[in-house]
Amino acid sequence: MKNLLLVMALISPLVSSAQKKAKTGPKVFDLVIGTYTGTDANASKGIYVYRFYAERGEAAYLNEVETDNPSFVAVTNDNHFVYAVNENNADGSGGVSAFKFDKQSGKLELINARKTKGSPAHISVDKEQKNVFVSNYGGGNLQVFPINKDGSLGVANQTIQDEGKGPDPMRQSEPHVHSAFLSPDEKYLMVSDLGLDKINIYRYKASKVPSLTPAEPAFVSTAGGSGPRHTTFSPNGKFMYNVQEMKATITVYTYDNGKVSEIQLIKMMPDSFTGVNGAADIHISPDGRFLYASNRGTANQIVVFAIDQLTGKLTRVDAYSTVGDNPRNFMIDPTGRFLLVGTSRRIYVFVIDKATGRLMQNREAIDVASAVCLKMVPVE
After folding, report:
1. pTM (2 d.p.)
2. Is 29 helix (H, G, I), strand (E, B) or coil?
């Protein structure tokens, strides 16, 4: 009996510690940063990895790997691999690269690379780690690359080419596939075509070739000349939100097993705004209460909306300056305490008031230029 009590006494603190960690979740993450690269001495060189401490909102440099214009990155569900587009426009040499990833050291090691049929702007990967989806803005198509057991990418086994044009002759003279996001259950893929004002909907079956087939209905249209760009879902999976780049608007949809129905169209900017819009990214807080969207152009803001928990509809809360820099992709850290936004000069860190959704700029900033995509991987 004494031995049993001794064992229990020794185990109890360990169990308590494990329970506490499980309750609070990890507080240390690797921040994986995709960038635009260049020849300037101060330009970014490729993908950067920083250690992010969520209790303090601080970051420390770990590693980097050189690669051309890795503007968007995706991390596998097991955190062992990183995939990046190589967004090269001038010579048509766009591609996608696969890297091994060591989350303890932050080291990235190139496995292989594949050419894409156009200039890619976005990449995503399924949780089963079967396929990578590449959206070719230049070229107007979506490509599916199978993932091999060693994390390398096979030759694309499906290319879906869009056809047509939109009402804006300058921006929409041809298709521009801008992103592909899986539904929460990963049974459907939502593909935004900025050039055609459409969100194409595909049924997804990971182990089949081809893995994508048109859903019924096969697409939903956004307002003419709006330019759909990125999509996100509410944590409960009942609502879908799409941000439109050209008009800086957000469309709210009900979502049910691949079927969407528009319930609201809301402007990011007030009617008095006469500047240039360039809406870019959209994310929802982990608790599902607030939606954030970025607007570039001459606005250079992060706009905050409150989400009605019953209807999914949005109400504008406030907007926050990114100090004149161009806010592209941003992310909310998994703890919901910080919002990090990549801009042309650096990555700004905002503190989130969880009660109101409002932002306060943190004293910390990360000096990575032309940061386009931010992803976090738990270290603990």
Report:
1. 0.93
2. strand
